[in-house]
Amino acid sequence: MKHPKFSHAFEVTVDLPAALQPLKKLAGNFRWTWDHDARDIFRSIDKDAWDRCEHNPVAFVNGLPKERLEKLSQDNFFLSRLNEAADSLDAYLGAETWFDKTYPGARAKTKIAYFCFEFGISEGLPIYSGGLGILAGDHVKAASDLGIPLVGVGLLYNRGYFRQRLTHDGWQQEVYPTYDFYQMPLTLARDEEGKAIRIEVEFPDRVVTCQVWKAEVGRVTLYLLDSNVLENQPWDQGITDALYGGDEDMRIRQEMILGIGGMRALQALGITPTVCHLNEGHAAFSSIERIRQFMKSRGTDFRTARQATVGANVFTTHTPVPAGFDRFTPQMLERYLGRMSGEIGVPFSDFVGLGRTDPADASEPFNMALLAMSTSNRVNGVAKLHGAVSREMFSNRWPNVPEDEVPIGSVTNGIHTSTWISRRMSDLFDRYLGPAWRESPADPASWAGVTEIPDDELWHELDVQRGDLVRYARQRLRADMERRGSGRIEPAELASVLDPHILTIGFARRFATYKRGSLMLTDRDRLKSILYHPERPVQILIAGKAHPKDEAGKKVIQDLVNFMGEGARNRMVFLEDYDMRVARKLVQGVDLWLNNPRRPHEASGTSGMKVVPNGGLNCSILDGWWDEGYDPSLGWAIGGRTDVGDGNHQDWLDSRAFYHLLETQIAPTYYHRVDGGVPRDWIRMVKKSIMAHAPEFSTARMVTDYTQKFYMPASARFEAMAAGSLDRAQAALAWRDRVQAAWSSVRVLEASDDAGKANSLGRTFTITVKVALGVLTPEDVRVEALVGKAGSNRELVGTRVEKLSPAGMDGSAAVFTGEVACDVPGHQGYTVRVVPFHPDIESPAELQLVAWE
Length: 853
Prior knowledge:
Elements: H1 21-27, H2 36-45, H3 47-52, H4 57-62, H5 66-72, H6 76-94, H7 98-102, E1 112-115, H8 131-146, E2 150-155, E3 163-166, E4 172-175, E5 187-188, E6 198-203, E7 206-217, E8 220-226, H9 234-237, H10 248-268, E9 275-279, H11 285-298, H12 302-309, E10 313-316, E11 327-328, H13 330-343, H14 348-353, E12 366-367, H15 368-374, E13 378-381, H16 384-393, E14 409-410, H17 417-420, H18 423-433, H19 436-439, H20 455-484, H21 491-495, E15 503-508, H22 524-531, E16 538-543, H23 551-568, E17 572-575, H24 580-589, E18 592-595, H25 607-611, E19 617-621, H26 626-629, E20 635-638, H27 647-671, H28 680-696, H29 699-721, H30 727-742, E21 747-753, E22 764-772, E23 781-790, E24 796-810, E25 813-821, E26 828-836, E27 851-852
Parallel strand pairs: 1-2, 1-9, 2-8, 9-10, 10-13, 13-14, 15-16, 15-18, 16-17, 18-19, 19-20
Antiparallel strand pairs: 3-4, 5-7, 6-7, 7-8, 11-12, 21-22, 22-25, 23-24, 23-26, 24-25, 26-27
Helix pairs in contact: 1-6, 8-29, 10-11, 11-12, 12-30, 20-24
């Protein structure tokens, strides 16, 4: 036999000398990922070993030789630093937080469960693939800093996401290592008797068991489910094997483990969330399991349980195109969720309708994003533009609602500043800004001191960071070439690759075709002329992975690598195996970040945000966050906000715009140095970018927005709706039924006003509306005037809603009146509508009822 099977298992741990026990404390909490002092302690012990273990502190500490440990235990200087770092962690964990100051007494009755398919906490915990996971990791870290009572819920992938290797001709190959969770900063969740907590999820012909691991991320605990347990059959042990691997069957199994299993794990841990945040549609089954648990614990029916919980779910979509959502056939859904449908008392035909735009359309597949929307009253995109794109994309789900009133808002993404900022820049900010930039990164006042940093000093730090990046890229390139069997690269040849003193551009992302990774190759001769300009040369560092099944994305990578080999090797480098470590090196060392997706297909993008506190500038298509962050004094925009309609021609136009910017604006600004070798205009833009973008595009601002706009109102809603014998929830349902039955009698009888044909700017006029309500009362409805610019086809543009108030009865008609200000010059108009209103129905659009004039 190749390997015998074990019959008994046990864990072996390393016993550290007493003086080194704080090392275990630091290794056991991921706060070191945003604490430079703690990170430097690991690095100072053995930098090469720290890098070899890919910044996994547990494996690093466990691998230290006994002699090294003994020597460290007697090194007073090291022990002093170690104890300071451990004390800093204790102080952080015990400090009063923003949440406690802002919501005194709320912690005991508030618990947010944040579900996501992937979490990018550290390269030492490789359970992420790209932007979604990195955003989730930064979200958790910001929640820790702010003291939000939040727990994370995800999956623990035995082989993570694939490791990227390129062949000698530039073709991507995927490698899947197997990870040892016992050698990571993870612990098994156990009950009071010390037994590992197990939860079960029912599949069509079997039950799958999962264990739960814990990762401590500052003040936040991240719970990760793992199906690789002996109770399961081998094929079920592999459900949590790889991220984004397998077919549709594997995807629905993983999403059931995340959503259904995740809620059951929280229940087993004694955690009852008041708010569930579904970060992307992968987690949508959690809302169904939440309803099932509520039904069982409160002895109620599906509709009441849904009414009690729908206002306490938050759904964030990161997808700007319909094809990006997970869809399942009704047959597959029934096979996997038919039992759940029966358990919650919902006929399967109704259950599948929860995930359809038209519940009655049997040909429409089941959409996980629509399920999340059907069970969440709070829905948002991840940038202002993405919110608008999402409202358009889902407008047919609310056919009677104007597109700009589709109930999908936006909370623009941000970055966790302390995770991504370099040591050099953080020290510089400490000297000139004090602790404010760390403690209150979302406050613009914290960054005002950037103007006081001397230009020469800031430029020196940027110069050194660029040199650090060039050295790292050369070392990585040498290792990659040797692994590929390309032979050992000679030191002299290696030294010619990249230049630490020229304009350096970073481009790193998932190589999906819409991100247009090869746009820069549209005119190869022109690109070479830019790269090798005799006075204003440019170099580009590129990194990123294509999905294993995306042949077109792999071809883009190959085209780039081949171009580099055709005479651009010392001006362009592709860094293999893009991960958080490579990302940090890039964003901390480049002068300019390039982003050129096809607008508006980039939901947000956060990589460009990460260069900002590191002193980098942005050059991007006006998409995602840059659409709202761009200003000519802060960076550069490729093209504009209009699309010519022809994708190939748009690519050509955007490539020309990019070349033109490099040649006429970016490079000239960078190389214009008339005073001491410092590019004063460039540094002026860097300072303005930091002051404008660093506070606005931080997860401190983002998570504060989620807390104030969503988490706390949703938690209060759940507390009210779930109170007592569920009277409010049942009353809201009774009202819904009554209004739906009577709505056919609701109509606008007459609308009039006292406005003149021409009105002076600033005057007001009165609108009077008579409405037939049938058996309903004025308290059951809201009468509104939609006021806006009158278009040539009678359409209203840029509307605002003016609420009209009840003003008595005129016979059987209810009268409503309201004042409207003439505050916008031009041709204006209005129309009147009636919508249902109830204080416990947060989204009137949910009822799909409206009576237009």
